[in-house]
Amino acid sequence: MSGTYAHAPGFIAGDRPKIVTSRFEYEDSFTLQRYLATDGYQGLRAALGRAANEVHDEVKSATVLGRGGAGFPAGTKWGLTPQGVYPRYLVVNGDESEPGTYKDRLLMERDPHQLIEGCLIACYAAGLSQCFLYIRGEMALAQERVAAALNDAYAAGYVGKNILGSKFSVDIVLHWGAGAYVVGEETALIESLEGNRGMPRLKPPYFPAAIGLYGQPTIVNNVETLANLPWLMLNGAEAYTAIGTKTSPGTRMVAVSGHVNRPGVYEIINGLTTFRDLLYKEEFCGGIRNGNQLKAFVPGGGSAPWFTEDQLDIPFEGPQAGAAGSMLGSGAVMVMDETTDIPAAALTLTRFYAHESCGKCTPCREGGTWLERILSRVVDGKGTMADLDQLIEVGTSICPGDFPHASNAKLGISAVPFPYKMNTICFVGPSAYAPVNSALVLFREEFEAKIVKRNTIPVTAVGAAS
Amino acid sequence: MARLTEDNVRLAKEIIGRYPRPRSAMIPLLHLAQQQDGYVTNDAMVHIGELVGATSAEVYGTASFYEMFKFEPVGKYLVNICGTMSCALMGSEELMHHAEHKLGVKAGGTTSDGMFTLEHAECQAACTEAPCLQVNYRYRFRVTAESFDSLIDDLSAGRLTAEIPDHGTVAKVLQHIPADRGVGAVPPESVTEAPAWLDGKAAL
Ligand SMILES: Cc1cc2nc3c(=O)[nH]c(=O)nc-3n(C[C@H](O)[C@H](O)[C@H](O)COP(=O)(O)O)c2cc1C
Ligand code: SF4
Ligand code: FES
C-alpha cells in the first residue's frame, strides 16, 4: 500500500540504540529478504543452539518487562506455568486499542518477521506447543503483512515442522479479531480466541499462565515484548541490561500524540528518558505546538491518570511514575496544550471506556455510562455543581477510596500513588473514571466555569486551533 | 441470504483445522461470511454453526459482541472517523461535521446510493497521525476537509478499487500453512507429554 511509509515520522530521529525498530528505515523492512540480510532468524538459531531452559534463564536475567501495560517481566511470567502440565500455548496480544497507543501495529506492519522470530524463541524457551497471533480486526495491513511473512517463513523452514532442521516444531496461527477494545485484556483475548464474546474472566482463578486457552497453561505476551527477543538472543542479556536502568532495561516504544510539534513513535531508552526529553527535545517532539504552554499530558495510555508540568522530569521508570500517581502503561503519551478544553478532552476518554464496557460487572456497565452522561451534560453547559460531586460519587463506587492522582505545587496537593482499589473484574471501569478524576482534581475551575457561565463550548473546541 | 459458497467452505475447513477446537475459528469464519455477502447473513450464521459445532444462537451471540460485524447491508465503503482523545485534540469533531455535510448523512447513516456508510470510530492506533480515518479498514492520516473531499471523490469515481476492497474484505492476503510444513492442531486432551525439545539439550 502506498503512503504508509512517510508516517509516524518520529521513529528514526536521533542516535539511540535500536532494539526493535532497527529495520524501520528500510522501505522493504517487512520482507523475508531484507530480514535475512539484517541478522534475521539469527537469534532463533542462537537460541536453538542452547537448551530451552538456558534460553529461558537468559530472558529472565535480561528482565524483559512486558510492554502491554502491566510491565511484568516476561521471563518470570513464563516460569509461572504449573509443572508438568501440557500442552501449553502462546497467545500473542496484537489487539492494540488503548487510546494513544501506536507501536504494535508498526511492529507488525514494518517488521513482521521479527515478531515471528520472537514468538518462536518464546515457544522454544517455555515449551509452548502452539502459538496464536491475535491481530486487532481493524488492522488490515498488519494482517496482510504478518500473513505474507508467515507464508514465506513456513516455506523457508523457519516455522512449522522441524524448524531449521531441529527437533523444535511449532505452528504459528494468525488469528484476527473483529473490533472490541476489552478483548485486549488477556483473559478476554482467550475467551475471544475460543470463539466467545470477549468478556474478561475472574482472576483468580483464571490466571492464563495456570488456566488459559482451553483451560491449559497459556502465556499471553504483547507484540513489542516478543519483538525484543531476537535481539536479546543475538546480543545476550548483558548487552540488553547495559541499556537503560537496572529495573527498566532496554528500550521501549512510545507514541506521542496531541499538541506537540512532531508527534510520532519513538524508541526511547527505558528508565532514563524523561517526559521532558520526549516532549521538548529536538530529536523527539521538539516542544509544544505554536510555542504554546503545556497544560497536561496523559503519560501511559487513556487509562492513566494525568500529569502536568510538575511531573515532566519523571523518567520512564514504572515505580517512579506509580509513586507520582500514574503509570507508564502501554507507552502512549497524549499532550494537551493551553488551548485545550479540559472537561471536553476528559469526555472523549470517558466516552471511550463507557462504550467499550463489556457489561459483565455493574460498577463498570452502569458507572461508566453515568460518568459519560453527567460529564456530557457538564460539557454541554447544562450541568450543576451537584453533578461534580456526583461524578466523584460514581467514580468512588467503581474504585473505593482515594483515586491516584498527581501532585501539583500550585494547587498545594500531593500525589496519591498508583494503583487504585477496584470493584470491577478488569480495568475498563476504573479507566472510565481516571480522566474524570484527573481533570476534576487538577482543573476543577474549568468545570465550575462551565456550570456558572452556562458555557456551551461545543466538543469541537477540544483542541481549538490557535 | 446465503450459506458459504463451496470455495469458502473449503477455506473455512482449512481454517478450522488450525485450531485445537473448531469453535476457535468462529470469528475468522464470520469474517469470511461478511467478505462473501458484505454483511453477516442469518443463513451464514447457521452454516458457520454447523461447521464449528455451535448453535446459530451461539454464533450470533459471539458475532454481536464485535463492532466489525454488520447484520444488515452497509455501504460499499464504510468510513470510520476516529473520535478518541488524540484525534479529538486535532480536530476530529470538525472533520466529522464536514463529513456529514459532504456525504449528506449523519454518523451511522448510509448514503442513498449505497456507496458510503459513515461511522464514529474509537482509537485506531494511529494517534500520532490525527485526525485519522479508515475506509474499509484502510487508513487515511492527518485528514483535512480537502483530503476528505478528494478521498470521497476518488472512491465515487472508482479510482481506489485496487487499494480499497469492498466492505467485508479485511486482509487480502490470508495465511496458508503448507500440508508438509504444518505441525497440525490436536485437541488439548490428546497431549500430556512435554514437547520433544524440552529434554535439557540444545535443539540444533
Ligand atoms: C482493558 C484492557 C485492555 C488491554 N489491552 C491490551 C492490548 O491491546 N494489547 C496488549 O498487549 N495488552 C493489553 N492489555 C494487557 C493484557 O491484559 C496483558 O497484560 C498483556 O497482553 C500481557 O503482555 P506483556 O506481559 O507482554 O505486556 C490490556 C489490559 C486491559 C485490562
Ligand atoms: S470492568 Fe467493565 S469491561 Fe471489565 S469485565 Fe467489568 S464490565 Fe467488563
Ligand atoms: S485517538 Fe484516533 S487513532 Fe488513536
From TrEMBL, chain A:
Gene Ontology molecular functions: 4 iron, 4 sulfur cluster binding; FMN binding; metal ion binding; NADH dehydrogenase (ubiquinone) activity
Q: Give the InterPro entries listed for this entry.
A: NADH-UbQ_OxRdtase_51kDa_CS, Nuo51_FMN-bd, Nuo51_FMN-bd_sf, Nuop51_4Fe4S-bd, Nuop51_4Fe4S-bd_sf
Keyword Transmembrane: yes or no? no
Q: What Pfam family is a match, any one?
A: NADH_4Fe-4S
Question: Keywords on this record?
Answer: 4Fe-4S, Iron, Iron-sulfur, Metal-binding
PROSITE patterns per the record? COMPLEX1_51K_2 (PS00645)
Domain spans labelled NADH-ubiquinone oxidoreductase 51kDa subunit iron-sulphur binding? 343-388
- Please indicate if the UniProt record lists Iron as a keyword: yes
Similarity-based family: Belongs to the complex I 51 kDa subunit family.
Q: Which PANTHER family match?
A: NADH-QUINONE OXIDOREDUCTASE SUBUNIT F
Name the UniProt record assigns to this protein: Unannotated protein
Automatic annotation (TrEMBL), chain B:
> Which Gene3D superfamilies is this protein grouped with?
Glutaredoxin (3.40.30.10), NADH-quinone oxidoreductase subunit E (1.10.10.1590)
Cofactor(s), by name: [2Fe-2S] cluster
A GO term, aspect molecular function: NADH dehydrogenase activity
Tell me what this protein is called. Unannotated protein
Family the UniProt entry places it in: Belongs to the complex I 24 kDa subunit family.
Record's keyword annotation contains Phosphoprotein: no
Q: Which UniProt keywords apply?
A: 2Fe-2S, Iron, Iron-sulfur, Metal-binding
* Iron-sulfur keyword on record: yes
Pfam families noted in UniProt: 2Fe-2S_thioredx (PF01257)
Taxonomy of the source species: unclassified sequences, metagenomes, ecological metagenomes
Q: Which InterPro entries match?
A: NuoE-like (IPR002023), NuoE_dom (IPR042128), NuoE_N (IPR041921), Thioredoxin-like_sf (IPR036249)
